[in-house]
């Protein structure tokens, strides 16, 4: 298998970096996963929003637009009054959800290992742990 020159593997637009772009927006992989796992690949925005606690409607719509622009989902306007919109995994989205599902399955199987990770300063998990422990001092920077 030819993977290109050694230098090409480190370019800014190399394949691994392009696939990791899916994870740079917080909700991208979760939306793709939720469409696939909970809605069989297609859902209206309201149903999708109800399936994803913690995401604001604004962030959901913004991320759906980005996913549509990238070709990972397709937007369908339903002929109804008022018009309804549904979102479906595109053929490309169906391919890209495969590695996402592998990572999510690995995470479920290794939850205890993930619990050993120190949360980042921006992690919601950090805040909830501090609240539960009663810790009132600010996190270390």
What does this protein structure show overall?
This protein is mainly alpha-helical. The chain has one domain: Arc Repressor Mutant, subunit A. It has helices spanning 15-20, 28-39, 45-50, 57-70, 91-109, 111-115, 124-133; strands at 42-44, 73-78, 84-89. A 3-stranded antiparallel beta sheet has the order 1-3-2. Strand 2 (73-78) and strand 3 form a beta hairpin. Helix 2 (28-39) packs across helix 5. Mean pLDDT is 84; it is low at 127-141.
- The best one-word shape is globular
Q: Please name the CATH architecture.
A: Orthogonal Bundle
CATH class reads Mainly Alpha
Helix/sheet category: mainly alpha
Describe the protein's topology:
Blueprint: H1 15-20, H2 28-39, E1 42-44, H3 45-50, H4 57-70, E2 73-78, E3 84-89, H5 91-109, H6 111-115, H7 124-133
Helix pairs in contact: 2-5
What is this entry, summarized?
The protein is mainly alpha-helical.
Please tag this protein with its features.
disordered C terminus, Arc Repressor Mutant, subunit A, mainly alpha, 3-stranded antiparallel β-sheet, 7 helices, globular
């Amino acid at each position: 298998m030819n993977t290109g020159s050694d230098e090409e593997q480190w370019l800014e637009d190399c394949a691994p970096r392009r696939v990791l772009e899916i994870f740079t927006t917080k909700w991208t992989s979760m939306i793709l996963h939720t469409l696939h796992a909970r809605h069989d690949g297609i859902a209206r925005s309201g149903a999708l929003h109800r399936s994803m606690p913690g995401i604001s409607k604004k962030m959901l719509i913004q991320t759906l637009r980005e996913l549509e622009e990238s070709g990972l989902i397709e937007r369908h306007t339903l002929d109804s009054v008022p018009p309804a919109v549904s979102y479906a995994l595109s053929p490309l989205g169906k391919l890209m959800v495969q590695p996402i599902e592998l990572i999510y399955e690995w995470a479920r199987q290794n939850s205890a290992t993930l619990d050993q990770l120190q949360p980042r300063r921006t992690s919601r998990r950090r805040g909830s742990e501090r609240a539960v422990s009663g810790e009132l001092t600010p996190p270390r920077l």
